[in-house]
Amino acid sequence: MQVLVTGANGTVGNAILDQLGDRDEYEFTCLDVEDHPDRETVIADITDPDDLRGHFEGHDAVIHLAAIVDLNGSWEEILENNIIGTYNVLQAAADAEVEKFIFASSIHTVGMYEVELSPDIYDSTSILSVTRDDPVRPDSFYGLSKVFGEAAGRLFVESQANPLGERHPTYVTNTRDYPTSFYSVRIKTVLGSEYDHPYGLAEMGVDEGWWERDSEDYEYMADRLKCTWLSHRDLGQLIDQCLQNKTIEFDIFWGVSDNDGTWVDLSHTQEVLGYNPQDNGGEWSGPPE
Q1: Residue 154 dihedral angles phi and psi, to the nearest 5°
Q2: CA 158 – CA 151 distance, rounded (Å)
Q3: Which of 95, 139, 143, 256 has most Cβ atoms within 10 angstroms of its Cβ?
Q4: Per-residue confidence (pLDDT) for residue 176, from 0 to 100
Q5: pTM over 0.90, yes/no
């Protein structure tokens, strides 16, 4: 399978390629705005549709990761990179007749649940279990851009079957044949390899001088990540299941490990994709030695 990865040099892209890059069934093309020191990279900017032209040809799937990942990002930069950029990637995939589109959505599509209910939401006994069917509640322009990406993906795949397009004068007629399937993966928290554990954010703060290891901030961040952690091996398995799946037209899945206090309902992801996460942040009592 020929797979194009946009934003391949970012944290999530590196994790996916580390997990799946050596698999015989996949041949990955890495696309980013900058070169990578250790692998061949196609240099292109998703905000420029002409820059993307030709790079999607011959691929069976696209994993779209490229985005500004900043909860404090301005409307202008989020609009250009995450909204217009995502549309450009979808259109490039459609023009190249790419069948499968995997979209890196985010927990921030429903982030207001966490804003309102933290820190109680991080208690493993919390009864909150947000499903993919619950109303979106973005907590930022970044979260809003991911809501757009999900809706745009749905439009691209569902506008192919337009029974009223030729008969109803007010109905959308710009149907597309591709992509034929869209997988929105609402990723919780993925960190770099050094911090790929439930104490990763807390330890990062210590290393950066933001707080001390015995501080309340340290414990808060550890409690949060024990709920939101998506380990690299679980991420790799989840993306692999999306790439191998042949049943989905459009669907939304949670991207998180099997954490005791995850506060989202993983059952749909497990049942539909066969996702079987191996890691649980709640089983950790401290950082790795």
Answers
A1: -65, -45
A2: 10
A3: 256
A4: 77
A5: yes
